[in-house]
Amino acid sequence: MLRTLMVTAITLTATAGLAQDAWLTIPETPAMPQAASSGTASVNGMDMYYATYGSAEGTPVLLIHGGLAHGDIWAAQVADLASDHSVIVADTRGHGRSTNDGSTYSYELLAQDYLALLDHLNVEQVHLVGWSDGANIGYTISTTAPDRLASHFAHAGNVTLDGIDPSVETNEVFGAYVGMMAEDYAAMSPTPDGFEAFLGGVAAMWATEKPGGLEGLQSVTAPTLVVQSEHDEAILTEHSQAIAEAIPGAELLILKDVSHFASFQDPNTYTQAIRNFIDQ
After folding, report:
1. At what angle do helices 107-120 and 133-144 cross, to 10 degrees?
2. Which one of 3, 105, 186, 262 has the fewest beta carbons within 10 angstroms of its own beta carbon?
3. What does the pLDDT look like over 233-242, one tens digit per residue?
4. Residue ranges of the AB hydrolase-1 domain (predicted)?
């Protein structure tokens, strides 16, 4: 039977003084800690920025950000997890410091990029933590290269187009996020004036791509935690429930008092949820 968990201050250590309407804000993330190594990997016709943190033995943690973002949004999680895990972050194709060779965005291509990055780093298997498009990339890897995943913490992903809440197109919080990422793109990208074209390419993927559908998830073998925010602007709760029901052995975790941007809004609780899953 599918077990649904509601994260509260009783079950996890929530951020002290978390505002009741935290889901209506997108706080700035802290600066990234010092990387153990960083660079670019030439994969699939583009240069992919990556950085590694920590030096612990064992299976590394790969953090994959959402659409329009970049690896630095994981700063709070990296600072915590790198104390006893090896952590890998990267900028997805065309995002942040990574280039694009003009290829059309698709989850299959982005998954291939991350698999090529793992090959470049000589990493056989990871605990994958994916947010939004990162979760969709994770679902794609789960079904196409399952041996590369030790586990998948999948927050706010969708595997069918009807899993997206249509009201997200006019949502003010989501609009504020797009504005924040436009500023970051101008500061980080090798093509700083190209945000509108970049946004158009990613939005086209959002409107047309579905990573496998629910039927394809029935073959997933990696332990999977499907994570849904209580006030998600983009992903319908019933869709996350359907994903969790489709994946053998998966569980559904509902994060309370946060939205699609939970890692920004309550980073301590978010990171503890990751730890509770990958360290079990």
Report:
1. 70
2. 3
3. 999 999 999 9
4. 60-176
Closest listed residue to residue 45, CA positions, set 86, 12, 94 = 94
Nearest alpha-carbon partner for 150 in 77, 68, 59, 240: 59
In three-state secondary structure terms, 213 is: helix
Q: Given 3.30.200.20, 3.60.21.10, 3.40.630.30, 3.40.50.1820, which CATH number is that of 4-11+33-278? A: 3.40.50.1820
Nearest to 266 by CA among 14, 83, 66: 14
Q: Is 132 exposed, middle or buried (0-12, 13-18, 19+ CB in 10 A)?
A: buried
Per-residue pLDDT tens for 43-90? 999 999 999 999 999 999 999 999 999 999 999 999 999 999 999 999
Q: Which two tokens stand for residue 255?
A: 């994060």
In this prediction, the residues of the chain whose per-residue pLDDT falls under 70 are 1-20
Q: Residue 10: what pLDDT?
A: 29
State phi, psi for 166 to the nearest 5 degrees. Answer: -65, -20
